[in-house]
Amino acid sequence: MAEDRDARIDRLLELEDIRACLTRFSRAMDRFDRELFLSAFHDDAVIAAGPFVGSAADCYDWAVPMHEEGQYATQHCLLNQTIDIDGDTAHAETYYQFIGRNRDESNWMAGGRYLDRLEKRDGAWRIAMRMNIIEWSGMLPTLPVPFGDLPDIGLNGLPARDRSDPSYRRPLENRREPQIPATPDEA
Length: 187
Known about the structure:
The protein has a single domain (2-141), classed as Nuclear Transport Factor 2, Chain: A, CATH 3.10.450.50. It is built from three helices and six strands, in the order ααββαββββ. β5 (107-121) and β6 form a beta hairpin. By secondary structure, it is of the alpha+beta class. A six-stranded mixed sheet has the order 2-1-6-5-4-3. It has helices at residues 2-31, 34-38, 56-70, and strands at residues 41-49, 52-54, 71-86, 89-102, 107-121, 124-140. The chain starts with a helix and ends in a 47-residue tail after the last strand. This is Nuclear transport factor 2 family protein.
């Protein structure tokens, strides 16, 4: 019984390491963090995404200028996921949604799946092969960002596509004064 429990815990740790690797990719794309992006891939990894087929470094150098030119905000959201581990190789299927706030104020949304072969080398799980399967795409109506007109909203930091984004701040601390807005029935 203890051996089964230990094996299950080992598997959970492997799964968590793989999920952390896949999450690094998404965060890196949204924050334009090249170092973080490359940390999700082995040096000899191959990526096939839309018209692009090549190395992780070349993919980053191709994708970031396209996102910089087209959108001023993006979110690469990871959803349902299956991961099959066989020794030091794993295959993952991860559903995703991509949302981009375009520079022309439109919103583009797409969804699909990342199909990844990951390999554990020198104790670290990284992507060795990635295919991006795009399954749908569409435009969303544009609405103002909620609460964007509050005078102190930026005190905690504003979204940025680099390491000045508040998510990199350590320790994370609130810089706004306490306030409880009126509820609709109080207004």
